[in-house]
Please model this.
Amino acid sequence: MSDRLNEIALALVTPGKGILAADESTGTIKKRFDTINSDSTIDSRRDYRHMLFSTPAMKDFISGVILFDETLRQSAPDGTPLVDIIKNQGAIAGIKVDTGAHPMTGHPGELVTDGLDGLSDRLKEYHGLGARFAKWRAVITIGKDLPSKDCISANADALARYARRCQENGLVPIVEPEVLMDGDHTIDRCFDVTEVTLNALYKALAEHQVALEGTILKPNMVISGSNCATQAEIEEVAEKTLQCLKRTVPAAVPGIVFLSGGQSDLDATAHLSVMNQTSGLPWALSYSYGRALQAAPLKVWAGNNANIEAAQRAFAHRARMNGLAALGQWRPELEQEAA
Ligand code: 13P
Model:
């Protein structure tokens, strides 16, 4: 593995910075735009993302941005490629390369992620377009008798094959095995499923000879199911998430960046900050949030470019709060401060 991959991975977890996940597929971004009654068009998607990437606070709190294929090829109205805007903010451009989670044959209620066909060629092209890291998301569902061993191992194997191809093509793979928070399961059930999933992932990465120094893990936090009657407190989430990660994630991994997964903006920030108050962890712990960074600015923007500055302030505020959380320095009273 080249030292370059390790350098990129370390840059993605620069202290006090994290990743903006802005890689919603066309279908997902439409769902987000529906919540603000705005049409999702190629131009409105470009305007919205251009608004995020040109926010001045990106420089201080965002190490990398995960893009969808369409965005990697788009330019601002003045002709500047969006990738260059990201680079000028001191951030690294990344690209989502899976083609989505699809129903798994013979496993009702379970999903397996596709996208290995032609992947090496796409990675070469993405590298040429300026991407230096990639993302692949696997989805593990908790339910009665779910997840199955087959689902966990099929997804781990695909993640490892993807990671290997990324490294061969000079991109750092973000490996994302997301155990969904949907359901009424307890935090302990989430712990057990996350532990089994991460063990399977690191076994597969070893089998495929992926150099862990040139990877980043993007996991869920260990958390109560969203419909569980008893919701675990912030300290319990932080403690159980760290315990699960210490059991499963080798110290050679430079960084772990959490997904927000449907947590409230404040929970996602608070959980990360409490975890980062523990010293002596083997890996950096930061964020790769989609919704927890974008929900506030999306609402303020509301599809109207007259709201760009206000939306940028909303984004800057969440980015700063999460930047502080990545240092273990966030406090609830800071939420009252204007960005
Ligand atoms: P959320 O933070 O909204 O879960 O999105 C992160 C992501 O990239 C999911 O793949």
